[in-house]
Amino acid sequence: MSRRIPEEVIDDVRSQVNILDIVEQYVQMHRSGKNWFGLCPFHTEKTASFSVNEQKQIFNCFSCHRGGNVFKFIMEIENLSFPEAVIRVADLGNVTIDQEYIDDVKTGNTNGADDEANSDVSVLKDYHREAAELYHHILVNTQLGEEALNYLHGRGLTDDLIEEFQLGYAPANKLLLPFFDEHQPDYQKLRKSGLFVELRDGNLSDRFRERVMFPIRNAAGQVVAFSGRLLQKSETQPKYLNSPETDLFNKRDVLFNFDKAKNSVRTEKNIILFEGFMDVLAAYRAGVKNGVASMGTSLTEQQVYTLARVSKKISICYDGDEPGQNATKRALELLGSLDRFEVNVISLPEKLDPDEYIRKYGEEKFYTKVHSSPESKLAFYLRYYEQGRNLDNEHDQLAYLDDVLKKIAQSTDVIEVDLYLNRLAQRFQLDKNALEAQLKEIRSSQRKKSNFQQQKNVLQKRSIAIDPKLQAPVHYSIIEQAERLLLYRILHDHSTWLKVANIPEFSFVHENYQTLYLLAQGFFFNQHQAYDSAAFLDFVQESALQEIIVSLEMNNFAKQTSEQEVSDCLKLILQASPLEDQIESVKIQLARAKRMNDQDTVVALTVKLIELLQRKQAGISAI
């Protein structure tokens, strides 16, 4: 028999968790006044517009206008249904829930769950979870996985680490499709999963074969993709094969091990960028658990924004060879373009990658190097620009100094600039004043280029359509301002509630506010004696109405209710309601006349509509 999670269980979970504690597992927050602010996890931004009100237990983004309570936050960020979000919040907040409700949610056996529970996304997550379990079982429990298991052991990975990261093996004999066939799957959804390739005859075949499998997880720790590494070299197959992009997975957004690393950031206070999965795993084994890696590609802007939400400090620990150093430079430039991070570089000797360094020098030495021996950005650039140059040659010297001074010019730290100018002057036996003069010219040139680019960006923005979700703040009419204030007072002040309830003819002008008013009646009647915005958000459920509630709660209305204020709002709304009804009626008649091609009636109704709109405007102006 299907059951929904009882209201008292939902209330219990909501009351026992602090939304800030949950949000901080995904976003780095800082206090400003009574609210907490951070970079919005739902869109890319450079200025923090995402806020949490700890007292009211709600979140809101002033740019994309997403908002709600703790359950809504988890629904949005982890793409979960409401029942799934309740279970997830309980788990994150260490709140105990009866196992029967957890089991019901896992099997989709809950009444009232929204459509997301049975959507493509939910099903695709199940497919990936089951595939990860199968690949892992093959690796650790079957003869088919012996060679792959020996390979991983040979790379220094322990059984515990293999278990923790759920590493697996996809054998040559295509076991995944038969495995799903036993469960009578939806083959259209299997096609969308990225786990299979479609053959010319329309049949499906396992995408991954003879590969060590690395599950790729989202920020919530759910498997959304795979990366498979060949055991044997091949002239025709890539060494690493990633899942294609799906409804679950975009390789430009995802970072390997981010789900675990973001939790370590709280104690380590920084995050470490590695190039490869094996580097992350080797570092993890050495006790460095705050490491992440991109998906076999250069670091992307989307990944940088993801990092910015959890840490302001980033260390880059890429391979010590030339490609690794080039990648380090690109990452530094990308991170520097956002001007949000304190960045340093962990440089490895002998062109070693982190995995090789650990195997050669040991875990303890690597751990010490990571925590005690980072170099600054400028120190890296001074070393980087030496590559391929003979600094005894005058031409190479001048080119080197030009490159290095351009980087020094970007620093706003006066002491750092002075330090490196002194080093250059001593090393090349130059007059420091000459270096300072050259630095001044470079900065002047950079400012001109920056101003030109800013003007160019302004022109480009004028020609680009703006995302409607990121528009400027909404400006409300006088009537709607009155409705918003009155609704807020109704919700928060019982005397206002009673006053309005005793006016039989009262109704809000705009449908959304009237709907919320009626829902509030049901909310208070449903044994909710005192208003609780977080609980009311769950009661309302509809996203558009929830956004209105959040915007009301995040507004700076005065705490005290004034009788005059309430009376003025009522007067405005009661005067506007009949006029709005007339306007709406004329609009309906006008549309009907246009369909009938009755031109005389169209003209007459148009004149009448203009008169009504003028009366409305005059009424507003007179107030």
Automatic annotation (TrEMBL):
CDD domains: TOPRIM_DnaG_primases (cd03364). Binds 1 zinc ion per monomer. GO terms for biological process: DNA replication, synthesis of primer. Transmembrane segments: none annotated. PROSITE patterns: TOPRIM (PS50880). It comes from the Bacteria. HAMAP family: DNA_primase_DnaG. RNA polymerase that catalyzes the synthesis of short RNA molecules used as primers for DNA polymerase during DNA replication. Monomer. Interacts with DnaB. This is DNA primase.
